Amino acid sequence: LLTNTRIRMFRRCSREHDLYYGRGIRSRAADGAAATFGSLGHLAQEAWWGHAGDDRIDAAMSAITDAVAGSDVPYDMYDVEKLRSLMLGYHARWIDEPYEVLAVEREFAGLPIVNPDTGEVHPIYTRAGKVDVVLRDARDQRIYVLDHKFTSSEATPGSAYLTKLRLD
User: Which of 23-27, 46-50, 79-83, 136-140 has the lowest mean pLDDT?
Assistant: First the structure.
């Protein structure tokens, strides 16, 4: 199964990919601060989308508090408060949108990898991953897939980060 994480690792370093996926060798080093912040952010957004109405922000804040309290990871409390502020802004922006949540953190596996030129399906590898949120807009009944990202990189239109994100 090929996930975005696995593909990203292979692109970054084929030796690291071989050690991790081929030989099962894992680093003892803890996740970096950026990965920790992103993971905590995803927990908060999973809780937010998994609840309804004003319970959403309470659920997100509780998810942050519980994750920090129950972890061996030394969270930077500045980052924790920054995430709380981000979630308050997120809540203010999206709470009144008429979205019906269809799925939160839905995993998928076994999607075929198809050569766009020939239409051939790869005989060995398939795609796998996880979708952050699937929702339906009540205004036009269109279905959307949300994928949240947390970054300290510049994310303005045309930035290197957004260009790489589109490629990924």
Answer: 23-27
